[in-house]
Design goal:
This protein is of the alpha/beta class. The chain has 11 helices and 17 strands.
């Protein structure tokens, strides 16, 4: 009788988490003993608090390899131009139109210009093979990128060339090219996550019918900072943005063409989430809306700040949006809300396999 009262008193003193672990042995009284109960109580209630030193170690372990400190940007403040373009079935017209838009953005002070996803071609599986270009061959084999290279050099600006269908090695890719102020190709990002979606009665599209997924995250050092590149559906995957942040990105750029189903629900939400999660800038650029096309884009190209605030945006018509990026705010925001120093590497970890293998 006395033993039973002691057991019940011990049980009452334990936390609910301890009880849940011990309920099976309470049903079998022969396996229950006071020593095991008090050992469990000590384990749950007597753990020492995390010290500052261990918190620092845990923070580093949350990224494998450890995150790269934010590098000093080449400039503190500059203007970005988002060219929300109408796209037609006439490729030459699309190229000429993009050229004019880039020139207009540069004339308004933009040192970085971002184009939409698939700006030289209609967005359809039937069109991708017809409009695809051999980017590596360049010249006449890729008139779209030749124009981007030429303008970047002439205007002395950095161009993130939206995306175009690329033909390479028998495969088709959805590819973004980045050109520096010297006109040279600095990076090429092939869309990693293909847009395969089937919402009955709303939208069905399968990029994988014609396109091949890229295999490599793309981060590039430019004259306007370190930039991580994604294309449209890539923005839905926070892991990719987290990898870019861990590699020291100042800015993430996503040319994209969200549709009339997912656009109103998720386009701005995802941009603000990626910016807030990683405390950096996010810029997106969409084609203008054409209700007569087979695929209708949502539009609303946007620049988002490191606290998730919308700094510049537009509606669905053609537009050139000019926004200002101020990198000095990045450190300020990270000091005010130091989540990058508060991660729990003892509980979770993001692995960047590309960096890990290179080490």
């Amino acid at each position: 009788m006395i033993r039973n009262r002691l057991i019940m008193k011990a049980l009452a003193s334990l936390s609910s988490s301890t009880l849940s672990l011990r309920c099976c042995s309470y049903n079998n009284k022969s396996s229950l003993n006071l020593n095991s109960l008090f050992f469990a109580r000590r384990r749950f209630h007597s753990s020492p608090p995390i010290s500052m030193a261990s918190a620092s170690v845990n923070n580093e372990r949350a990224r494998a390899p450890p995150a790269i400190p934010l590098p000093p940007p080449p400039l503190s403040k500059f203007k970005i131009g988002l060219c929300q373009l109408s796209v037609t079935a006439d490729k030459e017209k699309n190229i000429a139109h993009a050229r004019q838009a880039i020139q207009d953005a540069a004339s308004k002070g933009a040192q970085l210009v971002l184009l939409p996803e698939i700006w030289n071609s209609p967005y359809s599986n039937d069109s991708f093979p017809v409009y695809a270009e051999d980017i590596d061959a360049g010249g006449d084999a890729s008139p779209s990128t030749a124009m981007l290279s030429d303008l970047a050099r002439l205007l002395k600006i950095t161009i993130i060339g939206g995306s175009i269908p690329e033909r390479s090695g028998g495969n088709l890719y959805n590819t973004c090219c980045v050109f520096g102020t010297d006109g040279k190709l600095k990076a090429k990002h092939r869309k990693i996550h293909l847009f395969d979606m089937d919402i009955p009665g709303k939208i069905t599209f399968m990029e994988s019918k014609t396109l091949t997924a890229g295999e490599t995250p793309t981060i590039v050092d430019t004259e306007v900072g370190r930039i991580g590149i994604g294309i449209c559906y890539d923005i839905r995957f926070p892991e990719l943005a987290m990898i870019y942040a861990a590699r020291g990105a100042h800015l993430l750029c996503y040319p994209g063409a969200f549709n009339m189903t997912t656009g109103p629900l998720h386009w701005e939400l995802l941009q603000r989430a990626r910016a807030t999660d990683n405390q950096l800038y996010v810029a997106t650029c969409s084609p203008a809306r054409d209700t007569g096309s087979g695929y209708v884009a949502w539009g609303h190209s946007t620049l988002v700040g490191p606290w998730g605030e919308v700094l510049a945006t537009t509606e669905h018509e053609e537009a050139i949006i000019i926004g200002e990026i101020d990198y000095s705010i990045l450190e300020q925001r990270r000091t005010h809300l130091p989540v990058t120093k508060q991660r729990r590497g003892d509980l979770y970890q993001l692995v960047d396999f590309q960096r890990l293998n290179s080490h």
